[in-house]
Structures are given as structure tokens and as C-alpha cells.
Write a structure and sequence with these properties.
alpha+beta, Rossmann fold, seven-stranded mixed beta sheet, 3 domains, ten-stranded mixed beta sheet, 17 helices, DNA Methylase, Chain A, domain 2
Length: 581
């Protein structure tokens, strides 16, 4: 049975992330989208949301401003393992001119803080993983503080306990049919397998070249990297005020990098792909199936050629200022033997345009691309956006991502999880786990990097690391064994304040329960939440006088674990000084 990674999809559009992740499942790990949000401001009809519901159903879908949801209806956002989304960035989109590059200060840029608020408000239930997409210009915006916006995002993630990696990926560099450059940001909560691996990676070049999730999904040439080290810290407000304050001409961030505890390592990498490449010709529909309005009439050819051609001509601004306007030429019509240019939101409509795609057909006629062909360039199913007007369908695809890129990233992430957290480990488990038990009097335990002792309401539990996966070793009353096994639940007395200090508990991924004369119980931890005594009782737990009414409990939701059960030796007799056996 495969392990399901619960996903929420923000700024969902028509489901690009969903399609990519659903195609990325493997026998051990499956992605399950449990909640989605799509809302387009300032429009009369929510076409993208309607298409999403039509294709995937209305269950768990929100068509409300995500900022309003976070503020007023946060409880409707379920706990999840992975948060994905291509957060809006129109205020500094590559489709705008440079004087529009206002970055996070722009109207839509503030939606980054909706993501931040979800992570922050979820607390111990914040997702283990993030997968975010944006235009590559994010790395260097805004103009007056190059790289500040991206530094704010990285600093925000660091303040919430996430490490991160990013890559600018041109889909065409890896065989996809469109030249579309986008930055993909992957976040890993502290204690997760990728985070632990990144911390153990002493040479960050290895992560960027071969060991990271992005490098696994999209290989790069094994060349010596010129790595720059950048401090973004854990205070996004300070970053906002001070980062690139000297107004450098270039951003410090390259197309690949990692961030760990507010320290960034970044370098330029070169794609390494030797497979087959899809071209524009590969996705075209036969001419006989093309509506007449997509063919370009002879009267407008001259205007198309002018807009596509080079220019060096005098012009006058609206204020009366005269200047020379210069731009290079664009290929016209578009080449069929190569991946297409980047789809833009203005692909729809009959009016001549510099940026719309125009192809020469076999009959010698020129025409625009149809919505179905635009869908294919982004690797969506044929007619995925059917039902909306053609101009709207083109706009939606101009905002969408190449689903195949998400699929590859999803496969790399699921493979990392399944190899390290689900498949049985072949190594000798007893050589990995220190056979130690530290009692309350030993405050400064030896070998503390692999072992920590927690004391909660005079109850001791062991917390140790196996292959960088944190495991809790606890016990239970005889009357609770069947409840634990049948409900797949376990609890510890816990206050919110105590939990905030003992963060290692929230990072735990395994639970080992032992009791004299009983066979050990070994589980994977699916999720955690704080509940009241009444809620614990409602779950059928056999409470007694040792469970005070005002006490809260950390409830572990469990699932079967395929790993080998570790052997832990314990001292006899409580109250003895700590000792390593």
C-alpha cells in the first residue's frame, strides 16, 4: 500500500501542479490533493476556478481570496504534508517593462504573505515540504534593491524552520516542447529527510550538482562551481530594509542555490540532457481541424511583419518627449523544428501582436496557435480548458506552468521519501542507534548529537536519531495497547509552551513503544496535534485520574512502518545516574 502525501494547491489556476504531481506517484508514495484555492480578482466570471472544479470536483476547493480565507476561515485549510503553488507576481512579471518591476511592494506580490501566514499559523502542523513556482525575474527584483524580494522569502522560510533549494529551469533544456524559464523553490521542514541530508552535506556543490532534489530531477553538468555565500538571516523585516541597499547592478542570487538557517549558497549550473526533444511541430493540430478565424488574412500580414521586425525609429511619449525606440527582430513565422517560445497571456485574439505565435502551415498559409495547441505546449490534457472563451483559454495557458517539470520534481521528491523513510533499511540498526538510556539526573548526556532526553510531567521518553530520522521511544499502560493498535493513535501530556521549547518532538517521524512482556510496537508518525482531555476521551482512550481535566495532550496520528524495529537496551531501576551502556 502506498503512502499518501497530502497536498494543498494554492493559486491553483486550472490545476497544473495537481496534474504534474498526480503523474509523479510511485508504488510507495502517492500525492493526494486534499484542498485547493483559486480566485482571480477583478473579474466577473471565475473561469479558472470553474475549470478546476469541472475537471477535479468541488470537494475541498475554495474560490475565495486566499488572504480572506487565512484571516477569517483558517480552520477550513486542512493539515497537509506538501504545500504547492505558483504565487502571483504580475507586478514584476517578465512580460512587463522594467519600470513596472515593483516586486513584493506591488498589489499581487503581497500574496507571498498568505503562504507565510499558513505556515506560521499551522505551527507544529505546518507542512513538511513546499514546492513553489515563479518567474525567474524574482531572483533580481526589485530594480533598486536587486534580489531583495527573494531574500525576503528565503529569510521568511528560515524564520519558520525551513531549509530550501531552488533552480531556474528552462523546460526546453530537458526535452519539453516550450522554452519557458521558471524558478522552482523547494522547502524542507527541519527534521525531514531532505533537510537532514542537506545539513549533512558538507560540500554544498555536491547538493547543487547531484545530491539535491532539483539535481536529481533535472541533471546538470558536473563542473566546478563558483559558489557565492549570501547571508539572509531569519529576520525578513531587516532584509527588507537593508538587503542590496547599496543598489548593486546585479543580484547576488544565481540560477541554483540552497538556503540553510539563513545562509545561502548559490551558483550557476549548466543543464545536462541527452534525451529526445519535443518541438513545436510535434504538438500541432492538422490544418483541416483549425477554425478559419485562426488563419491570418493577407491584409494584416504587413502589420504582423512590422510588429515582429526590428525597429530603430523616433517616437514621442504621452508627455511630448521625443526619443528613439529600438528593439530587435523576432523570427516570423515561428520555427517548427525547435521548442516554441514562451507562451504569454496575450496569445488570444485576432489582432496582430509581436508576442503571439504564428506558424506557416503545409498549405502555405499562416495562422495563430489554437487553445488546444497552447495546452499541449504546457503538457495539459487536450481541451482541459474547454468551456471558456478562446481568448480566456489562451490567457490561462499564458499563466500556467509546464506540468512535466512538476512531474519530474514530484518524482524526485517521492523517490527521496520512499528510499529513506518507507523502504526497509539494510544497515545494521543496532550500529546506528546508541544503546543508551539517560535518566533524569543526567542533564548533560554524552553523545547528545544522536540522543536527547525529554521529561514531560515526570515522564521520561527517549528521542534519538536513526539515519537522520528522529524516533521517539515511549511506553504505555496495558489497557492502552489495543486502543493504540486499533485507533493508530498515541498521546503524551503536553502544554503548548512546553512543545514550543521541545521542537525535536514535532520533527519525529517514528514511534517505538515497549512494555515488559509485550512485543514492541513500531509506527511511522503521520501527523501531530494538541487536544484536550475531553477530546482524548471522545476518541475512546481509557482515561483515569492520572489524566487531569485541564491537561492538554500531544496526539500522534500513526501509520504502519516497514523499517526494521530498532533494539534499545534500558537500565533497570529508575533514578540512577545517566550511563552509556
Amino acid at each position: 500500500m502506498s503512502h499518501k502525501i497530502k497536498v494543498i494547491e494554492l493559486f491553483a489556476g486550472v490545476g497544473g501542479f495537481r496534474l504534474g504531481l498526480e503523474a509523479a506517484k510511485n508504488p510507495d508514495v502517492d500525492y493526494e490533493i486534499i484542498w485547493s484555492s483559486q480566485w482571480e480578482p477583478g473579474v466577473k466570471k471565475q473561469y479558472a476556478s470553474d475549470i478546476y472544479v469541472k475537471r477535479f470536483g468541488a470537494n475541498g476547493h475554495s474560490n475565495q481570496d486566499i488572504q480572506v480565507v487565512v484571516r477569517d476561515n483558517f480552520e477550513t485549510i486542512p493539515n497537509h504534508d506538501l504545500l504547492v503553488g505558483g504565487f502571483p507576481c504580475q507586478d514584476y512579471s517578465v512580460a512587463r517593462t522594467l519600470n513596472k518591476a515593483t516586486g513584493l511592494e506591488g498589489k499581487k506580490g503581497v500574496l507571498w504573505w498568505a503562504i507565510y501566514d499558513i505556515l506560521n499559523k499551522k505551527g507544529i502542523n505546518a507542512p513538511s515540504f513546499l514546492m513553489l513556482e515563479n518567474v525567474d525575474r524574482l531572483l533580481k527584483s526589485p530594480v533598486k534593491q536587486r534580489g531583495r524580494d527573494f531574500a525576503i522569502m528565503l529569510s521568511s522560510l528560515a524564520s519558520l524552520g525551513y531549509s530550501a533549494e531552488w533552480r531556474v529551469i528552462n523546460a526546453a533544456d530537458y526535452g519539453f516542447p516550450q522554452r519557458r524559464r521558471r524558478i522552482f523553490i523547494l522547502g524542507y521542514k527541519k527534521g525531514t529527510t531532505p533537510d537532514s541530508q542537506l545539513r549533512l552535506c558538507s560540500n554544498k556543490a555536491d547538493w547543487l550538482l547531484k545530491d539535491g532534489i532539483a539535481a536529481t530531477a533535472f541533471p546538470v553538468k558536473n563542473e566546478k562551481l563558483n559558489i557565492a555565500k549570501v547571508q539572509v538571516g531569519k529576520n525578513p523585516v531587516a532584509v527588507s530594509d537593508e538587503f542590496s541597499k547599496e543598489m548593486p547592478s546585479k543580484s547576488p542570487f544565481e540560477i541554483a542555490g540552497v538556503m540553510l538557517d539563513g545562509v545561502v549558497y548559490t551558483a550557476k549550473v549548466v543543464p545536462d540532457y541527452k534525451g529526445k526533444t519535443k518541438t513545436l511541430a510535434d504538438i500541432l493540430v492538422d490544418d483541416e481541424n483549425i477554425p478559419d478565424n485562426f488563419f491570418i488574412n493577407d491584409d494584416s500580414i504587413a502589420q504582423w511583419k512590422y510588429l515582429k521586425g526590428s525597429k530603430n525609429e523616433p517616437r514621442k511619449s504621452s508627455g511630448g518627449h521625443e526619443y528613439f525606440y529600438t528593439e530587435g527582430s523576432m523570427i516570423f513565422p515561428d520555427a517548427l523544428d525547435k521548442p516554441s517560445r514562451t507562451i504569454v497571456t496575450g496569445e488570444g485574439g485576432n489582432a496582430p501582436s509581436r508576442f503571439k505565435h504564428v506558424i506557416m502551415t503545409k498549405s502555405g498559409k499562416m495562422r495563430r496557435l489554437t487553445p488546444l495547441e497552447l495546452e499541449r505546449l504546457n503538457m495539459f490534457p487536450d481541451n482541459h480548458t474547454a468551456g471558456a472563451p478562446d481568448i480566456t483559454r489562451a490567457f490561462i495557458m499564458g499563466n500556467a506552468l509546464v506540468t512535466g517539470v512538476v512531474e519530474q520534481l514530484g518524482k524526485a521528491l517521492s523517490s527521496n521519501i520512499s528510499k529513506t523513510a518507507i523502504q526497509p533499511q539494510k544497515s545494521d540498526i543496532e550500529s546506528i542507534i546508541p544503546a543508551i538510556r539517560i535518566w533524569p539526573f543526567a542533564k548533560n548526556a554524552e553523545n547528545k548529537t544522536a540522543y536527547e532526553q525529554m521529561f514531560l510531567f515526570e515522564r521520561a521518553i527517549d528521542v534519538y536519531s536513526t539515519d537522520n530520522t528522529i524516533t521517539i521511544h515511549g511506553t504505555y499502560r496495558e489497557t492502552c495497547r489495543e486502543w493504540i493498535k486499533s485507533k493508530m493513535l498515541y498521546n503524551l501530556p503536553m502544554t503548548r509552551e512546553k512543545l514550543a521549547k521541545e521542537t525535536i518532538l514535532t520533527d519525529a517521524k517514528r514511534l517505538l513503544l515497549t512494555r515488559a512482556q509485550d512485543k514492541p510496537l513500531y509506527f511511522a508518525i503521520d501527523s501531530q496535534s494538541l487536544i484536550s482531555r475531553k477530546e482524548l476521551e471522545d476518541l475512546g482512550y481509557p482515561v483515569n485520574k492520572k489524566h487531569p481535566a485541564k491537561t492538554t495532550y500531544l496526539l500522534f496520528s500513526l501509520k504502519p512502518c516497514k523499517d526494521l524495529i530498532p533494539t534499545v537496551q534500558t537500565l533497570k531501576g529508575e533514578g540512577k545516574k545517566g550511563k552509556i551502556l
